[in-house]
Structures are given as structure tokens and as C-alpha cells.
Amino acid sequence: MNASIIASTGSRGRSTVTKVYLSGKMSGRTGHDVVVERQRAIELCLEHNLTPLDPGKNEHLKDIPELVSASVTYPVMKFFVAKDVYAIDHSDVVLVLTGDTPSDGTWWEMGQAHFKTGIPVVMVAPNRCSGDIVGFSNVMVDALFPTIEEAVKFIADNYTGGK
What we know:
The protein has helices at about 5, 30-45, 75-90, 105-115, 125-130, 135-140, 150-160, and strands spanning about 20-25, 50-55, 95, 120-125, 145. By secondary structure, it is of the alpha/beta class. It has a single domain, classed as Rossmann fold (3-Layer(aba) Sandwich), CATH 3.40.50.450. The chain has a five-stranded parallel β-sheet with strand order 2-1-3-4-5, with helices on both faces. Helix 4 links the parallel strand 3 and strand 4 (about 120-125).
């Protein structure tokens, strides 16, 4: 499926977008994969004059081959949820980095953005773009792309006027 066909600017959100909340699965993946993916998203946002908001920044992610644990205490998770909800409420768009394999938190972040905050959700999901995965997210997100590069360019071009 052609990404340009399934991407739309939508009618929600603000006319000038600067803050991009980086959403996506962290636990169950290697620390290295998560750090590299988020660093790439941050670099691309900065190249396009967007301000990335990375919730992983203060979650002690390390560039290591071990898996990021899903085991945290309830108070720690409550803190993570509160800071992430606050960040989404103060963002202009949510960029989902792991749309083919979202986590429990990613689903809730998309819901917060879409239903409460009313900001666009742009998703990176190569398998959804190819039609290998089709579900609610294919329909509900504002735009769907196979790569981070295409997703960030779309955000810059359609929600900020581009470079």
C-alpha cells in the first residue's frame, strides 16, 4: 500500500506543530534497539525543526544488548504514566515508532492523544503499510508510514509547513 495514499493531514490538531511526543514499545526489546531508534527519531525531528519529547529520556534506558524489563513497581509505573500523560497533553503530535508491535503503554498514549488531547497520531508501521497487518490503528491514525524518515518529513511538511 502506498504511504501517500493512507496519509492524511486530518482536521485535528494545531496549525503549527513543534513538539513531537515519541511513543513506542520499549520493554521486551534490547536496550540498544530502543536507544538507536529513539536517537534516530530525535535527530530527524531536530533536522526538521521539530522539538522531540522522548519519555525514555528519564527512564534510564541503556544502549545494552539485554532486553528492557517490563517489571517495575506500581509507584514507578504510576510516575511514568503521569509524566507521559503530561507530556502528551503538552505535545502537538504523537509519533508512534513501533506501530507494528505497540505496547500496552503505546495504545494508551495513542488514546490519550486522539480522544483527550485531540492531536494527530502519526505511526511508523511497515507491516501495516504493506497490508500484512490491518487493524483499528490503520484506520484511526492520522498518517501511517513504513519508515521514521517518511513519518517525520510528513509531520514537518503537514503540521509545521516544513523546513
